[in-house]
Specification:
Helices cover 45% and strands 12% of the residues. The protein is an alpha+beta fold. Strands 1-3-2 form a 3-stranded antiparallel beta sheet. A hairpin with a 2-residue loop joins strand 2 and strand 3.
Length: 121
């Protein structure tokens, strides 16, 4: 018996978006929201971390091998320490491929930071 071509394939829906934090002008942040956001800003407050974060975010394809971004004026163990701090703050994800680590900026986190600082909301 032939299959009917009239049946439409199921439509895949995007997963629900993470709750967007309120803008800083929308009202007081809760203690957990403030702690989470402060940890992210604290991680980015270091110039070396901010440079690493920028290098990863601007790297072609949105991810970078540690071998491509480690020249920021500090030793390799210090680069690893800073990348660990960025991962712990939830700003980066990482994946090991062979002997190298590849890092990617967590897009939902950038959206959170942006939403918090959006004065138009």
């Amino acid at each position: 018996m032939p299959l009917s071509p009239t049946a439409d394939p199921p439509v895949l829906q995007d997963p629900p978006a993470a709750p967007r934090p309120p803008s800083i002008t929308a009202g007081e942040l809760s203690a957990p929201e403030a702690a989470r956001m402060a940890a992210m800003f604290k991680a980015l407050a270091d110039p070396v971390r901010l440079r690493l974060f920028s290098r990863i975010a601007s790297h072609p394809g949105g991810e970078a091998c540690v071998c491509d971004i480690q020249d920021v004026g500090v030793s390799q163990p210090t680069v690893s320490h800073h990348l660990k701090k960025l991962r712990e703050a939830g700003l980066l994800t990482s994946q090991r491929r062979g002997t190298w680590m590849y890092y990617r900026v967590e897009p939902s986190v950038v959206a959170l930071l942006s939403a918090l600082l959006d004065l138009r909301a």
